[in-house]
Amino acid sequence: PLAPLVNAFLPERKDQFGGTANATVQVQGAGVTGASLRQHLTGTFDCGATNLNFTLDHARSRVVRALTEVVTTLPDLVRNPSGAAAGRLLGSVLGAGQTASPDSWAAQIKASPVNTLRLRGHAAAGTVQVDEVMAQSPAFILSGTGALSLATELTNSTLRFPIQLALNRDLAAGAGLLPANSPTNVSYVELPRFLT
Question: Which residues contact 84 (CB under 8 A, 6 or more apart)?
Fold first, then answer.
């Protein structure tokens, strides 16, 4: 169970997480420089959590908050790539994000609890390959695969990570993103891939 661990070691986050988590990590390497990691880092990782009941508006990590802004901005970008969504996305990444109205679909995405997380991959030959990453809530499914190619100078490492976002059918319809020929038995509607 995850909640007792969070409550004990992060009391300021008490009752913000639920469910169970598991992780299997087998990693070997030597050194901490880019050159040594490229040459020696090997291993596998497989992590998951279910029944988290964690809402994205409680996220503290800058990376998770930026990713949340990307997720809530993507539907606007799909509808109007050169419009205000591009500015909102840039503003959010630079720390000048705006608060969405409580009844907007973006606010609904942020308030929808993430229930399932999955991260699986491996490292070898100077590359960390993410074979699967997935976050699921009643409002969306975010998934992707990609690779981090380690450079000798770690700050020059490259990340290729296309992300697939699928919105809950009702949210997609409310955002004007439900294709006319979408089957009625589909719970989530996929948007075009982003973020390579």
Answer: 76
User: In the numeric block, which tokens belong to residue 17?
Assistant: 């997480």
Q: Under 8 Å CB-to-CB from 58, ≥6 apart: which residues?
A: 13, 16
Look at residues 116, 142, 118 and name the one whose alpha carbon lies nearest to residue 24: 118
The answer to whether 166 and 176 are in contact (CB under 8 A) is no
Residues 101, 72 contacting (CB under 8 angstroms): no
CB count within 10 Å of CB 80 equals: 10
* pTM, to two decimals: 0.77
What are the structure tokens assigned to 44, written together? 């596998």
Q: What angle do CA 21, 26, 31 make, to 5 degrees?
A: 125
CB contact set of 116 (below 8 Å; sequence gap of 6+) = 48, 49, 50, 51, 52, 134, 135, 136
The per-residue pLDDT for range 104-132, each reduced to its tens digit, is: 777 788 888 999 999 999 999 999 999 99
